[in-house]
Amino acid sequence: QQDEGLSTRLFFLLLVPALFDLIGTALAKVGLMYCDVSTYQLVRCTVIVFTAVAKQCLGERLPKHVWFGVGLITVAMVFVSVSSLIEAADDASATASSGLKKDPKIGIVFLLMSCIVASLQYVFEEKVMTDDGAHPLIVVGKLQYIFKFFLTFSGWCGILKSFYNYLYPIF
User: Fold this and answer.
1) 18, 44, 66, 133: which could form a disulfide with 2 (CB 3.0–4.6 Å)?
2) CA 3, CA 133: separation in Å to the nearest integer?
């Protein structure tokens, strides 16, 4: 039975997944600067592995066929990461379009951190939907995007203020 109203507790609980999403996205984009897009796409699939592990730690028993799939994803991610590292060792002078020296080790670490954050977000959202009876559209839709907008906007306001304070003495 789901409650149609939105409690104050639930309203503020939905700020947490928005923060997780912004942090995970930022980590993933930093990782993308240091590795190829193909590596980025395939390493991001490890969010499934981390979500399964997080759910297991919270006491939810996953079926054996799910663990088989998690194992396959883990093996594939290891192969992709190793091939990316071998390729980088062969081409030590590669630079990204941003001018940064490509270093897949750094990229893969940032991508894995973003996957851990995203898995925590997914598990938290599922917990909120289960425990508080929140409608999925409320949890992963409406309020989360409103929070992300305001968090991003406030971050940009801080950046612009710093930029203004830096340039003000020049003019």
Assistant:
1) 133
2) 6
